[in-house]
Design a protein that fits this description.
Organism (chain C): Lactuca saligna
Distance between the termini of chain B: 42 Å
Oligomer: heterotrimer
Number of helices of chain A: 13
CATH topology of the largest domain in chain A: Rossmann fold
Largest interface: A-C, 83 and 87 residues
Number of strands of chain A: 21
GO cellular component, one term (chain C): transcription factor TFIIH core complex
Chains: A alpha/beta, B alpha+beta, C alpha/beta
Number of domains of chain B: 4
Structural class of chain A: alpha/beta
Largest sheet of chain B: 4 strands, antiparallel
Structural class of chain B: alpha+beta
CATH architecture of the largest domain in chain A: 3-Layer(aba) Sandwich
InterPro entries (chain C): TFIIH_Tfb4/GTF2H3, vWFA_dom_sf
Number of domains of chain A: 3
Number of helices of chain B: 23
Keywords (chain C): DNA damage, DNA repair, Metal-binding, Nucleus, Transcription, Transcription regulation, Zinc, Zinc-finger
CATH superfamily of the largest domain in chain A: von Willebrand factor, type A domain
Helix content of chain B: 40-55%
Strand order of the largest sheet of chain A: 5-4-3-6-7-8
Strand content of chain A: 15-25%
Family (chain C): Belongs to the TFB4 family.
Chain lengths: 399, 452, 289
């Protein structure tokens, strides 16, 4: 065990001291030259896109968009280790903060709760809730470590909390585990079975070395198990959990939920809100059914009980449902010159390399417009619209 | 920063210091109006645009209504600037309320511009004339090279091959005034401001030179307002297009030749006509200082061990680095040196400050290190500051010493008086002695004479 | 992907992307309070004054048509000064082409123009400017829009809005039609832009210069029109109706105006409609078995 630690420490230092020099590669003639980052980047992205689209092509996209997630943070003695600077605990807290924000951005109707393990006891820091700020505030106030870690106690608490949520919700737990042992009051295997039966998906991110019990837990409950090498890797691993996981039909029962989309009132209007029962100055929201005024979204109308959400909130996840079809590569010399446009349809960047040679570009299989590689990435990763298809009325009526 | 002393911040400060008559005359030229507008602070620009189609005076309070609390100071600066440039005419009515309206000539010219769009000051060379014009890149290189040559010439007249020979020695003298000090035995030597000048970016240097050029114009029999208006007009030409010299008058032709030596303009001789091609330096003249200052590629990498690598082929860069670092060897495209205590002491004694050196290193950081924060290692910047403060252990303040007070009360009163002006440097209440800054010496004397 | 440098660049240099509604059905309708030519002359003057303000300012105009969208002007390609002739010529070509694409569909009332297309194009262009280096003009988008919202574009427009928000590009909207636009209200609200529906269109130029000519830097110091309420209604996926109450699929969050047995987007089969996602404790226990 000692050895594992040594190597992992070494690994961390190595990545930290990587110099400012550019990445180099050797070309055919043995000369060193900078890596063609753009081409490399694009190739990586294409691979990612292809793997995504092939997965979704077979089945209809079903994602668990309403998630109930407990983040379990190990604050045992091991979290005070200094192999991540300044300590594991601080680094974990920092990444958890980033994760919580990203999570709510991508999963608008979901809720998070925080649990800590300290002195062999699991404790609920925050109940399930939808406000990132309140979680972060509580977490930052509780950053001290002591005693042993107990996986079983943590799982029991998670199970107890998540057993109450509605059937359409996806139950998840992410455990950030620093310790190399677990100190349990009973048989942890039984608890794992209990979680499995309650369809709680448990994932573990280890901070020291791989543990069999964690791996087993993840395998049983359908979660992911990974061990972070350094801070950057930890960030990557934890953010992997932000996008909604593929829904497994038996895990949650589909349902239609009635909701209202309130309008925001003008700035500077005075009105009495139904949630605090006091006069408020400035924009509030009006329930479409009973016209009561509420201060914040999402919430439940105090008068008629309708769930009120802001529709843009919902719309943030729609790109999961209607992904842009992957663009096709265009062989540079294949398309006759008169048929290929000179500039990218999206950004008007020239598609010609210096010397008027046709450069690399891609084309949308639906609208047949040509795009540059940069736009290709932007369209699929951030915009989620094909500008070509969107500016054609015909293609709209089809879809 | 001491830079302020030797540099008028930009062209527009010069323009605003012109007498009212000349200023009003300048506004008859539409290009001047455009350039003035562009030089204004963002808020002032907005006010001008807002009042462009309003023919009646607007009260100050209604203008202020748009401003948030945070912006009050910006608002004042903007309005002051507009009044100073006589773009706003201010009238105070009976109720003591100020109203503003736009300068009529200025307003008319801008309205024309807004409706018809900008026009070019003169037609560029027609496309059918087949003369090979330099590409933009060539032109940029030409400008940079010419400017560097000029700078080298300026600081070190002996060493340079004489490429800028056409600048008359008397003109060179004018430029060198303030930057170089002449000594009988050892030739010229850079002054404090000269060093600072070299560390500034190209645009700031350009302003300085152009300002000297303009302020010297009256001696050459050229009206400074005419010169300013021509220079501004020049900045509205298109970079890289050729313009016929015939369209210029005699004085402008001489000016163009001078500017060619500075790299603002490239002259080209055609078969029949001669042409002038403005470079980027010329077309950037009317842009305010801050915009273009950081558009240069950096070249300096500083390591934590005080080594300094400058990826540059320029002789001038080497000279500049020599000001505060020891240049160890030079490869065709790389200058390697190190920042040492001795060299820094030399620089400090020449009047260069640590902040100037650090900001020079930061501004010229190679793109690869510029991405990092901080771009210059902290231990290096700290050490440079420490070395500087080593030299400044003793601070000199001109002061006056007071002694022999008639009574303790008078002494106490005098101390309080000095404290109020925050000019009390030292006091000894036992011996009843005190030292105050020179600034309040006169007040102090007056105060004491009343006490007696 | 979000460029950090844009925050540090505090100058007033702007890149203004103007999305101009050229929907022939809107401009020819009798409800439109003023003519296209009048509108154009005011907008051209406005573009002139933007370029006048700063030598480095850049203006790009994209026409939002009925059947297509296209770039019709880019000041970085010319010599700084706005060439009204080139813009008008391009615009004319665009309008003719747009007309030809019309497939004689029966259009009821004033059809919507393709705002989602022009928004997407503008964002692609802005990304290219971001890529060009750490120093670039501050981009913003101005929608000069008159046609009705097209509920069919709901998802695409929302996607564009979120992408703009992530890159910190404000979307200003100037609505010249007779009705408020719920899409543009949301766009401006979410991205921190200004939404304005001028009262008197004859003074459009004055509105444009006083409100929309303000660069992002100066917006910190000035009082600009506050939103008069935002319409957060959504479009349902089944009939593309704009609704303020509806059913949400718990699996994919699709919106429906009526209760269905099966989700048309993700294929999940539904049980009985549930009234709410409840957060309170008693209710949380209730639906679970």
């Amino acid at each position: 065990m000692k050895e594992t630690r040594e190597t992992s420490k070494h690994g961390r230092e190595h990545t930290q001291t990587r110099g400012p020099g550019e990445s180099l590669q050797e070309d055919e003639s043995g000369l060193l030259r900078p890596i063609d980052n753009q081409a490399l980047h694009h190739a990586q992205y294409r691979r990612r896109l292809r793997s995504l689209s092939s997965a979704s092509a077979t089945s209809r996209i079903q994602k668990g968009l309403i998630r109930y997630l407990y983040l379990v943070i190990d604050l045992s003695r091991a979290a005070g280790e200094m192999d991540l600077r300044p300590s594991r605990m601080v680094v974990v807290a920092k990444q958890v903060e980033a994760f919580i924000r990203e999570f709510f951005d991508q999963n608008p109707l979901s809720q998070i709760g925080l649990i800590s393990i300290k002195n062999g006891v699991a404790q609920c820091l925050t109940d399930l809730g939808g406000s990132p700020e309140s979680h972060i505030k509580v977490l930052m106030g509780k950053l001290e470590c002591a005693g042993e870690a107990s996986l079983q106690n943590a799982l029991e608490l998670v199970h107890e909390q998540l057993d109450q949520i509605p059937s359409y919700g996806h139950r998840e737990a992410i455990i950030l585990y620093s310790a190399l042992s677990t100190c349990d009051p009973g048989d942890v295997m039984e608890t794992i079975q209990k979680c499995k039966n309650s369809k709680i998906r448990c994932s573990v991110i280890g901070l020291s070395a791989e543990l069999y019990i964690c791996k087993y837990l993840c395998q049983e409950t359908g979660g992911l198990y990974s061990v972070a090498l350094d801070e950057a890797h930890l960030k990557e691993l934890i953010l992997e959990h932000a996008p909604p996981p593929p829904a497994i039909a038996e895990f949650a029962i589909a349902n239609l939920i009635k909701m209202g989309f309130p309008q925001r009132a003008a700035e500077g209007v005075i009105s009495i809100c139904s949630c605090h029962k006091e006069a408020k100055f400035g924009g509030g929201y009006t329930c479409p059914r009973c016209k009561a005024r509420v201060c914040e979204l999402p919430t439940e109308c105090r008068i008629c009980g309708l769930t009120l959400v802001s529709s843009p909130h919902l719309a943030r996840s729609y790109h999961h449902l209607f992904p842009v079809t992957p663009f096709d590569d265009v062989a540079p010399l294949f398309v006759p010159n008169h048929r290929r446009p000179k500039a990218c349809f999206g950004c008007q960047q020239s598609l010609l390399n210096p010397g008027n040679l046709p450069g690399r570009c891609v084309t949308c299989p639906k609208c047949k417009q040509f795009f540059c590689l940069d736009c290709d990435i932007y369209i699929h990763e951030s915009l989620h619209n094909c500008p070509g298809c969107e500016s054609l009325r015909d293609s709209k009526s089809l879809s | 920063m001491p830079q302020v002393k030797i540099i008028a911040k930009n062209f527009m400060d010069m323009v605003s210091s012109l007498p009212a008559m000349k200023l009003d005359k300048l506004y008859e030229n539409a290009f001047i109006c455009e350039a003035i507008l562009r030089s204004l602070p963002p808020l002032a620009k907005k006010y001008v645009l807002q009042l462009l189609y309003i023919d009646v005076p607007v009260s100050a309070s209604s203008l202020q209504e748009w401003v948030l609390v945070d912006g009050a100071s910006k608002h004042r600066v903007a309005v002051d600037r507009l009044i100073q440039l006589r773009v706003f005419t201010e009238t105070v009515d009976r109720k003591k309320e100020a109203t503003y309206r736009l300068n009529l000539m200025f307003q008319m010219n801008l309205r024309k511009h807004v409706v018809h769009g900008g026009v070019l000051p003169r037609e560029p060379m027609a496309a059918n004339i087949t003369v090979r014009l330099p590409s933009l890149e060539e032109l940029d290189n030409y400008a940079a090279q010419q400017w560097e040559c000029f700078l080298l010439h300026l600081i070190n007249s002996a060493e340079v091959e004489v490429t800028t020979k056409s600048i008359s020695p008397s003109m060179m003298k004018v430029f060198q005034r303030g930057l170089l000090s002449q000594r009988d035995n050892e030739g010229s030597r850079l002054t404090e401001s000269g060093f600072q000048f070299l560390l500034m970016d190209t645009n700031a240097q350009l302003w300085y030179i152009i300002r000297e050029y303009i302020s010297n114009s009256e001696d050459r029999g050229v009206d400074s307002a005419d010169l300013i208006s021509f220079l501004l007009e020049l900045s509205f030409h298109v970079t890289g297009e050729a313009y016929n010299m015939n369209t210029l008058d005699e004085i402008q032709r001489i000016t163009v030749k001078d500017l060619a030596d500075l790299g603002l303009i490239k002259l080209q001789q055609g078969r029949k006509d001669s042409w002038f091609i403005p470079t980027k330096l010329a077309t950037n003249l009317s842009i305010s200082l801050s915009d273009a200052s950081s558009r240069k590629m950096g070249y300096v990498v500083v390591e934590t061990n005080f080594r300094l690598y400058a990826y540059s082929t320029s002789k001038l860069h080497c000279e500049i680095l020599r000001l505060f670092a020891r240049v160890e060897y030079q490869l065709p495209n790389l200058i390697v040196g190190s920042i040492t205590k001795e060299n820094l002491y030399k620089a400090f004694s020449n009047g260069i400050t640590a902040d100037q050196i650090i900001s020079f290193l930061q501004q010229n950081a190679h793109p690869r290190v510029a991405e990092k924060v901080p771009s210059v290692p902290e231990n290096v910047t700290d050490q440079i500051r420490l070395w500087e403060s080593d030299l400044n252990r003793v601070e000199m303040t001109p002061a006056h010493f007071f002694d022999d007070f008639p009574s303790r009360d008078v002494f106490e009163a005098a101390c309080d008086f000095a404290r109020e002006y925050s000019s009390l440097l030292w006091e000894d209440s036992k011996k009843m002695q005190l030292i105050v800054k020179t600034e309040i010496y006169a007040h102090m004397k007056e105060f004491l004479s009343h006490q007696k | 992907m979000t460029p950090v440098s844009s925050k540090q660049y505090t100058d007033d240099v702007s890149l203004l992307m103007v999305l101009m509604d050229t929907n022939p059905l809107f401009w020819s309708s009798t409800a439109t309070p003023f003519s296209f030519s009048k509108f154009l002359s005011q907008v051209l003057s406005f573009l002139n004054s933007i370029i006048l303000l700063n030598q480095l300012n850049q203006v790009v105009v994209i026409a939002t048509g009925f059947n297509s969208c296209d770039y019709i002007y880019d000041s970085s390609l010319g010599h700084g000064n706005l060439r009204a002739e080139t813009l008008l010529q391009k615009l004319e070509e665009f309008v003719i082409k747009d007309e030809e694409l019309n497939k004689q569909e029966s259009v009821d009332g004033i059809g919507s123009s393709l705002l989602s297309g022009s928004l997407s194009m503008a964002l692609c262009y802005i990304q290219r400017v971001f890529r060009s280096g750490s120093i670039h003009p501050q981009p913003r988008i101005l929608c000069l829009h008159g046609s009705q919202d097209g509920p069919g574009q709901y998802v695409a427009i929302m996607n564009s809005i979120f992408s703009a928000q992530r890159s910190m590009v404000p979307i200003d909207s100037c609505v010249i039609g007779s009705q408020h636009s719920a899409f543009l209200q949301q766009a401006s609200y979410i991205t921190g832009g200004v939404y304005l529906k001028p009262q008197q269109l004859d003074g459009l130029f004055q509105y444009l210069t006083t409100v929309f000519a303000t660069d992002l830097h100066s917006r910190n110091f000035l009082q600009l029109p506050k939103p008069v309420g935002v319409d957060f209604r959504a479009s349902c996926f089944c009939h593309k109706n704009t609704i303020d109450m509806g059913y949400i699929c718990s699996v994919c969050l699709s919106i429906f105006c009526k209760h269905h047995k099966k989700c048309s987007t993700c294929g999940s089969a539904f049980g009985q409609p549930q009234t709410s996602v409840s957060t309170s404790n008693q209710k949380r226990k209730a639906p679970d078995n």
